[in-house]
Task: inverse folding
């Protein structure tokens, strides 16, 4: 059974989103590998189209 919906990832505690509001963006994330963990911090980035 897969607990994570990979088509709709969940990100929390993302800051400064008002700085990019209304822009057309491609968003991605690079999660850090955590041994034995079921979650991890990630570097989230956006590329403006």
Result:
């Amino acid at each position: 059974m897969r607990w994570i919906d990979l088509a709709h990832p969940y990100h929390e505690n993302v800051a400064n989103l008002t700085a990019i509001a209304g822009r057309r963006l491609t968003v991605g994330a690079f999660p850090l590998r955590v041994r034995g963990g079921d979650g991890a911090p990630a570097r989230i980035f956006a590329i403006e189209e």
Observations:
- The chain has one domain: 1-49.
- The chain has a mean pLDDT of 81.
